[in-house]
Structures are given as C-alpha cells and as structure tokens.
Specification:
The protein has 702 residues and is of the alpha+beta class. Helices cover 55% and strands 9% of the residues. Helix 2 runs antiparallel to helix 17, helix 3 runs parallel beside helix 5 and helix 4 packs antiparallel against helix 5. The chain starts with a helix and ends with a helix. It is an enzyme of class 3 (hydrolase). One of its GO terms (biological process) is peptide metabolic process. Monomer. Cleaves proteins, imported into the mitochondrion, to their mature size.
Length: 702
C-alpha cells in the first residue's frame, strides 16, 4: 500500500505546505487559533476564508452567469423575448430541413435555446436573495414552460421528426447518439399525445395539466402540519407540541425524541389519514395511468421506465423483492437489538413499533461508538475537502479545480465561488459555481443545477457546460474556517459526483449531456463518490486538523464506517418498502383498494414491523410527485455504484487508468447511450439482478 500512496502524499505535501498554527489573543481576550492563509493553496484559501468585499462603482455589470441581458430583474423579459425569436426561427428551419441528421441538430439547438434560459431561471428563482430577481426568474419559468407546451403540440415539428425516424436509410446513416436523441425527442412529443386524433390529443393535454396541478396540491398537503384538538392528548403530552388556542399543531414525527410516548403520539397524529389528501393522491395516480394508456403504455410505470437501466417494471419489482428477501434476516436481527435496548430503556413497553427505529438506531450507535460529529469536523475544513477532491480528480481524470475571479453582476451572492475545471491537455472543460454557504432565505437542501449543457457547435468548438452546486454550510469566520461533519463531507463528495458527470461529458447534443439521463443512472456517479469519501487512503490525503495539522486517526474513520453499517439493513429494507409501494401505485389500475389499504398490506409483507392502524404514511411521501415510479433508482444506483467501486476502484482509488476508462465508458456519454450497456461495458459483464442484490449485501458484510 505504501507504494500506492507515496506519490500522492508527496503531491499533497506540495499542494498544502503547512506551517505551525500560531496561538494569539483576540481583541476581547479570548484565545483562538489562526492559520496562516499563505500556507493554503489558492483553492483551499478560496473556501476557507471570507471573500473580501469589493466596490463595484466603476465595474461593468456583466449580468448573471455573464448573460448580458440579466443585469437586472427586467432583463429576464428581454431574455424571454430573445428565446421566443430564436425558437421561432429554429422551428421554421426544422420544418423545412431535409430528412437527415440536420433535423436532430436543429431540434437540439431549439432545446438548447430554451434550456439555457429556463434552466438558469429555475436556479435563480431558488438561490437569488433578491426577491425581485427571484420573482422575475419564476415568471420566466412559467412563460418558457408555456412555450414548451406549445412546441410539444406543433404538428410541423412532429412531422419533421417522424419523417426522419421512418426513413431507414437516413437513420442508418447516423451515429448511435444521434439516433438515440431523435428517439428521445419523439418520446417527449408522444407524451403530449401529439400523435393521437384530435379528441384524444386534447384529453392528453388536459391530463398533463391535471397531473401538474394535482402534484402541486399533493406536495402542499405533504408539508402541511396536522392540527388536532387539545382534548385528544393527555396533559403531560399536549404541551410537548405547539399549542395554538384549543389546537395542538403537530409538524413532524419527532423521531429524535427520547420519550416513547411523544414519538408514538407524534407518529399517529402526524400520519393521521387526511381524506382530502388521499383523494388528491388517488386522482393523481388515476390521471397518470390514463395518460400512459392514452399514449400507448400498459401503465405509468412502463412509460416512466422506458430507456432506463431497469428497462421495465417487472425488472424493478424482481430487483426490489430479491433485495428485500436478502435483507430480511439482517433486518430482523437489527430490530431484535433495538428491542433489547428498548426493554432496558422502557421495560413497561418493550415492543418495537414503526416510530422507534429512528430513535433507537441513533441511540445505540451513540452508545456503542461514542461518535461525536463535532470531533471529526476540525479535520474536515471545507478548503481541505476541496483540496482533497482536487487531488483525487487530478489522479483519476487529469483535471484541476481552479478558482476564478468573478465579474460584477455575475454571481448572486458575494460568497459564491467560481471554479474552472481544467484538463491537462483538453483545456477548460467547464465551470462550477459553488453556492455553499448559509444565508437568510436560502433553501436548506443540497442540489445540482445545470445552467448550460455541453454540445458540439457548428464551427467545431464545444459549448462548455456550466453548473451550480448548492449546499448549506456555515460560512467561515475571521478565526475559523467552515468545518464539516462527516455527513456534510460525504454530501460534498456526492454533489461533486454530479458536477463531474456534467463536466466530463462530451456529448454531441446538450439534450443528453451529463446528468440529463435516466434517474437510475444519473445517481450512480454521485453515489460512487460516497465510497471514495469513506476510504482512508483518500481521506488521509487531506483530512488534517485545521489547528494542529494532525491527520485524521485511522481508528476514528474505522469507528465511523462501522457505525454507518449498523442498522444499514433495516434502513435499506424501509427504502425497499417505499420503492415497492411506488411501483404498485403506478402499476396496473384500477388499484382495487385505497392507497392506505395497499400501503398497510405492503408494509406488513415487506418491512418487518406491522402497519399502525389509523395512519397513512404514503400521504407524506412527497417523492411520489417528482419520482413517480422511479423511487427504486436510489437503491439500484447504489447497487451499481457498489459494483463499480469493488471491481474498479477499491484496490487503487487513485488509478488514472481506471479513471480514464470510467470517463470513456460512462461519464463522457451522459444520456447519449443506453445506460445499461454503458455500465456493462465498464464492468465487462452483463448486469443481472443477482449481481446487483449481492453488491448491496456485500456492503453490509464488510
């Protein structure tokens, strides 16, 4: 192992020459540690120190993301007008284009024209702290969405694409990616029912509109607290919740409460069935099924899974059931351990209920491993983690992350960092805007936005991709850099996996660039990065105490990894249940029973803890909106990532040969190739349900 590590240790020492921290006294007499910022690399400095405020009085405003129209909120209207004009010209050109690859190229130009403003606006409406900018971006999302709906029913466009797909000679003359993109555009068309007779096409349009409205209504209901009369709770419990007049407001399940009674009350009240919410869900599921059948699919799941790694619902259900069967023995052992602890903690009520596992799994981990996330955080300063990612990527992909100075008006907050991703021989591959720090009003979830997709331009140049990563970390202070808990560090690696997918893709068409691929494939690169984040050989390159320069002790990482494996089976078993529920809801209709009855039956069959009468967990399952029939993707992508890690990277996580092959076989193609075939080409074997299930089980046993 020393031979593997030596060159990387040397590289990191060169990147991160350090001096002794100096102990000084602050102006108020407190003793603090101050690190000499000159010892950090430019990348580490960019993320470990606060950005100096700059006066912009005489600097030209270049507009958000250097889009000249976006110097003010009103600029979104100008950007919309420009899009509408360009789209009109491209529609005319496409309708009159000769049958051949030019049709695909024009379709992709049209898609790019729309996405470059719509995707940017979708990001800005979420991240921009200025309400006027956010509102203008929101309106642009609505307006371009309406334009897209018009284009989806444009018969001239549809006919041009249909002529191409029916011309066997023209299709045979095109490369694989062009054929796939043409088929994907047709798939998008037919979802709108454009190929149907007038009456049915109008019905498809109405169903699409209804599905959007119902999904929005369901999401609102998911996040709505339950208000119950104070009289339903005994006095010793009612004031454990928010009290509003004669009502008790239950906002969540209080899973971390040490009181069994509070957890039970919160679970039963928060998940109490809401008849209106159940009607919304059942109407949504029915509308999706009607739309799928109208456009030629047996079920909504069949329509959704077309073009994915899984291929069809039958494969998904086979995978989920096999995974559940493989997990159940370990799951029951974990539940038994929880019962033992509960019997000591609450001898009068030793039975285990669905409201218990979140609390007791955390309690037992803390008791067994004595892990305090704050003890790990000093080893994971944000700048050090970014240096570690840079070191890893330089070995795997021969790229570096280089901080860039931003121009006036280019970013929406002064603490947003811009990185250029630069390849040793290929030059700039793309740009990543890192919006990592907390601020008032900023959403607290982590996500990846594509601002501009990569594609081949007419002049032979490549339109380089631009993405935004949004995380939620405390900003650095004058005396301390941003320190990450192990979970925050792992999330950083996960999101950078998405960013690398976008940066390293080199597709001909932006419609399939980077993460624009099937969900069960899009999560593979990000989940794979979590394995790197748990490998001591990787962490030892950068995980150093920000004050003492001490490397993270290996036994601390070992304890952390062991704690993560404890109760992993029961947690995964629960995800299997949710994924099966999702598949059944989006399978054959009519369902024959209420969604609550179906959930109860499936929980009793696939989880290991019985369903609680008078509760309806599925009415809080917001993933049914955005991930309808796709929730399995989280589990399948983890299985694929596990197989990739063990077969390709576990022996040497810094292998440049394997990294280049991974880019060539998988990352470079985005959604431009069949995802299953890409994985099989990388693994040099066919994917089977048995292999994927075994990968998940192997992770539990390591």
């Amino acid at each position: 192992m020393r031979n593997v590590l030596r060159p990387y240790n040397r590289l990191v020492r060169l990147l991160r020459a350090r001096t002794e921290s100096s102990r000084v006294l602050s102006s108020v007499g407190r003793a603090v540690w101050v690190r000499d910022v000159a010892t950090w690399s430019p990348l580490g400095t960019a993320f470990n120190t606060k950005t100096a405020k700059r006066l912009n009085l005489f600097r030209e405003n270049v507009g958000l993301f250097e889009v000249p129209e976006l110097t003010s909120p009103s600029g979104f209207q100008r950007a919309e007008a420009k899009v509408a004009q360009e789209a009109s010209e491209l529609v005319t050109a496409t309708q009159s284009a000769p049958t051949g690859i030019q049709v695909v190229q024009l379709f992709d130009k049209l898609s790019d024209t729309l996405c470059r403003v719509a995707d940017l606006a979708d990001c800005i409406r979420v991240v921009h702290p200025n309400a006027k900018f956010a509102h203008a971006a929101q309106q642009t999302c609505f307006h371009i969405g309406a334009l897209v709906e018009q284009l989806n029913t444009n018969i001239g466009l549809y006919d041009a694409l249909k002529r191409l797909l029916h011309d066997e000679t023209a299709m045979a003359s095109m490369d694989e990616e062009s054929r796939r993109v043409a088929e994907l555009f047709m798939f998008d068309f037919e979802i709108s029912g454009i190929h149907l007779p007038d009456l049915q096409r109008e019905m498809a349009v109405r169903l699409n509109e209804d599905i959007l409205t119902l999904g929005s209504d369901f999401s609102k209901g998911v996040n709505t607290p339950n208000a119950v009369p104070k009289s339903v709770l005994p006095d010793h419990l009612k004031y454990c919740f928010t009290v509003d007049g004669d009502k008790v407001i239950v906002q969540n399940m209080h899973s971390d409460s040490g009181s069994d009674a509070i957890r039970e009350a919160a679970y039963k009240l928060y998940l109490h069935p809401n008849p209106q919410q159940e009607r919304v869900l059942e109407t949504l599921l029915t509308a999706r099924n009607k739309l799928a059948q109208l456009v030629g699919y047996p079920t909504f799941a069949h329509r959704t899974l077309k073009g994915t790694m899984a291929r069809d619902p039958e494969t998904v259900m086979s995978f989920l059931k096999a995974t559940g069967e493989g997990l159940i023995h370990r799951t029951m052992e974990e539940f038994s351990l929880m019962r033992q602890y509960k019997a000591k903690h609450s001898p009068s009520n030793p039975n285990l209920y669905p409201w218990d596992p979140p609390y007791y799994s955390a309690f037992i981990k803390a008791d067994r491993f004595k892990i305090d996330p704050t003890e790990y955080a000093p080893y994971f300063s944000l700048g050090a983690c970014m240096e570690g990612l840079n070191c890893l990527f330089s070995q795997l992909y021969r790229i570096s992350l280089q901080p860039q100075e931003t121009h006036n008006g280019e970013i929406w907050d002064s603490e947003v960092k811009k990185l250029a991703v630069i390849h040793e021989t290929e030059g700039i591959l793309g740009y990543i805007y890192c919006d990592f720090f907390q601020r008032p009003g900023k959403p607290q979830h982590d996500c990846h936005f594509t601002i501009r997709g990569g594609r081949q331009l007419d002049n032979g140049d490549y339109q380089i991709p631009v993405v935004v990563l949004m995380l939620h970390y405390p900003p650095p202070t004058m005396t301390k850099p941003t320190l990450l808990t192990p979970g925050m560090m792992e999330n950083l690696f996960h999101e950078m996996g998405h960013a690398m997918h976008s940066m390293l893709a080199r597709t001909r068409y932006q419609h399939v660039t980077g993460t624009r691929c099937s969900t069960d494939f899009a999560e593979v690169p990000s989940v794979l990065m979590e394995y790197f984040a748990s490998d001591y050989r990787v962490l030892s390159q950068f995980a150093r105490h920000y004050q003492t320069d001490e490397t993270l002790p290996e036994d601390m990482l070992r304890k952390l990894c062991e704690s993560k494996k404890l109760f992993q089976a029961s947690e995964l078993q629960q995800q299997v249940l949710y994924a099966i529920v999702d598949q059944v809801y989006h399978g054959k209709h009519p369902l024959g029973k209420s969604t609550t009855e179906i959930f109860a039956e499936l929980q009793n069959k696939y989880y290991g803890l019985p369903h609680v009468q008078g509760t309806a967990w599925q009415l809080r399952f917001n993933h049914l909106v955005g991930y309808g029939a796709k929730y399995y993707s989280y589990i399948m992508s983890r299985a694929v990532a596990s197989r990739l890690w063990h077969q390709c990277f576990k022996d040497d996580p810094f292998s440049g040969t394997m990294g280049e092959r991974y880019r060539r076989e998988m990352l470079a193609h985005g959604g431009g190739k069949d995802p299953k075939l890409m994985v099989e080409s990388m693994l040099q074997k066919q994917l089977s349900t048995e292999d994927l299930v075994q990968s998940l089980l192997d992770d539990l046993g390591e």
